[in-house]
Amino acid sequence: MEDKNQEFINVEIDKEKQSKKHQKYLNELNVDAKHTMRERIAVGLILTAIVVPCFILGNYVFAVLILVAALISCHEIINTPQSMEKRFNRILYFFAYLMMVLMIFYIVFKNNMIDLSNLIKEGNQSSFYFDLTRQFTGIQFSLPWFFLCISFFLLVVLFDKKFTIADAFYFTMMLTIVATGFQSVLYIRYAPFTYSGLIPENAGVAWTYATAPTYFKFGHSTLPLFYFLIGVCFNDIYAYFVGVFFGKHKMSPRISPKKSWEGFIGGVVLSFITSFGFACILESTGFPILVGVLDLAHWYNLVILSAIMPIISVFGDLIFSAIKRYYGIKDFGKVLRAHGGILDRLDSTLTTGIAFAFLVSLMANNWMVFSAL
Asked: What's the whole-model pTM score?
């Protein structure tokens, strides 16, 4: 009898020890979670203080912001497939950075050179000035840059035994997607100038950054960008909270274990309501998102974009998560501390930006596909 009592006591003591260990572990997790959350909030506030003024000022300030983000993203792309045993040649670094910049900004130089050529033919070249917003009618995918890109990386495969065919296609795909995404964000910010000719009082004459009034440069022209960011960012917020409280069915447990179908549906519905409501409120104040394209006269365009943005956002997030899973990494980088790298924060923004920019260019051309390309 005494042996059984002693055995029972020992079991209870072991349970108590296990309980204390578990509680200690939970306390440590809570401390780490609180520290991470504080760090996330601090970094988020700093980023907001830097990024929002750049959104508003636009022009070269916004272009520099895109350039810096693109170069850091390129560095993260290069580092992802590398390890202690697998290091790439510095020439590859230089080429990747160069291609990233060219694939984003070549359209700006192309548009300005076309205008300069036309002015020269008219004998009026003295009136030319370089403008980032000039004739930015849509994103443009450059086949010459793409073929140069894939050709270079395939050549590296032939001469560098550490660089595989999988690496070649990874670099080509990532540089193309990310560069097109950043070019799309440029388009979203600068497109209002191109389409300002649709404003009735402008009588078909589009403003450039140099000729636009102040209220348009720093106010009205920012609305498509903020509308776009609301559609993407609020989807993440809504999907997270709906998933936490109601999530039961995993969406893609192999790639992103925390995502649920309930969170996905909740995020899409609530994001749609928020972004479409934002557009309606602005319209009621006399400031449509984009006159002649995204206004209540073209309400169906707003419905389409507001519905598609959160869907593409989740798709983009999953694609980039799959890449991280494949290479066995948690984050693309650490430049944003607890937030990870630039690509960790902009994955859904860049992919959604491509769809958003393409659709807006289609809508502006009355859904004529080849006119928008």
From this structure: 0.87
